[in-house]
Known about the structure:
Blueprint: E1 2-3, H1 4-7, H2 10-20, H3 26-42, E2 50-53, E3 60-63, E4 68-71, H4 76-89, H5 93-123, H6 126-160, H7 165-194
Parallel strand pairs: 2-4
Antiparallel strand pairs: 1-2, 3-4
Amino acid sequence: MANLKDIATTQGVETLAQNLGQPSDARVLEQIRAIVSKVISKHPELGKTTVEARPGLNNAFYNFDNKKITTGMLDPDVMAHELGHVENTANSPAYQILLRSVRGLASLNGTLAIPAMLGMHAFMGNAARKDAVRTLAGVSSMMAGPILTEELSASANAVMNSDDKIRTLKRVLPAFGAHSVSSLLPSILYQIDARL
Ligand SMILES: [Zn+2]
């Protein structure tokens, strides 16, 4: 498996394209190589970050627990977004703990939202239930906050590093949208329920 130091070389980025089974447009490959190279010249220790090519994946993500970028895409904007996550979380154990815990809570909250609402309909009076639901809606939005902030920051990093900022904005904003919907879903559900 490759790491970022490999991707910063012409040969490494070509190997990534081969492993993804995607046609390698020389200009795109050079953009990817240049972005990676810029980040690791600033932070040489990030050169060890693993890069896993996963053909067929129409997405990319960074897991800071095992310091691994997994990507199915040969796209400089997507790479810059993931590098934003790498830079933001590197050398910040406290920030990693924060993201990890809100991520865990947010997914637990996502799983619990509907059963919790049904439970409250069954067991609570209307006024008490509305009050509880409103509290849960607030807590859910707060838990989504750090995750969304991190996504926005990674996307801002992609835009800042881009030679075509409009293209990059169009590229990374829909991804941010998808993240927002899934992390805000519990909160949206609670807010709808409070109006029932
Ligand atoms: Zn992201």
